[in-house]
What does this fold into?
Amino acid sequence: MKVANEVFNNPELISKLNNQGSRMATKIKLIMKAENVSLDELANKIDMDNKLLERILDKHIYSINLGRKALRLADFRSITGALHVPDELAVNMLGMPSYVQNNPNEIGRFIRFFIPLQSRTKKEIGTRFHTTHRTVNNICLGYENTAVSLLVKITRLLSPVMDQAAPLYSIQKYLFELNKSNSEIINEYKINRTILKNLSMNYIDTISLKKYSEVMKKLGFNDQQVFCSLGMNNIPANVLVGDFGVYINKQLKAKHIYQQHLAELVGLSVQGMAYIVRTSGISIKNAVNINHILNQN
It folds into this structure.
């Protein structure tokens, strides 16, 4: 058996394990092959009948006579534990970001927290995936008898929060780690539900920098932390969000760049760029793009 650290330092394998289009059984077999673990050895490690394990890994759904219909979350956690899969990778395999803890309660809480922000109900999800409201509710409650195939189908609906490179990834992580419900966050921090939804959906072209700043400041962040949360770490500490247009103008003059040229690079009109410089009224998307361009010149 290969050392786990050696196995999971393979970028090609990690890419395949993070592919949300692949069957979970296929991913498990890839790990078994990489670690040189046989079916019998794995069955022994997790104390499962080898024939049962074989059926789980060979079919999406198997005989009801076996007592259950699919690879369960409990099976998945036993198997990935026996194969020494890192916790962050295990939750990634399920279609969840690395900040979700690898335990049933937190996995359920992730679904429970983000699904309503996607404007979806448990009943709607149940209908969509040909299952019951009760089954979906059990997933949200962290039941370990949850079918992994159904869990992955649901997490695919939440794909926006998986993009670690997205500007809003850090705020999504922060909101989840508050360990509060949507309603508690809305009531306690006086955050508009629509804004909360847009944050979870990575709608960076519809959320203004100023509106984002308002939300962040309600959560206790200052201007510099607002910029840093969006990956704009180069912005000087004395620059305020309300003065971002002034900062852009100073950078343009210092770098001898015309507003018209910057507008063309970002895909804005000259009038649009002038408005941004004058009022600091700018979307998160344009703020991040403009900062990146100015930082490169």
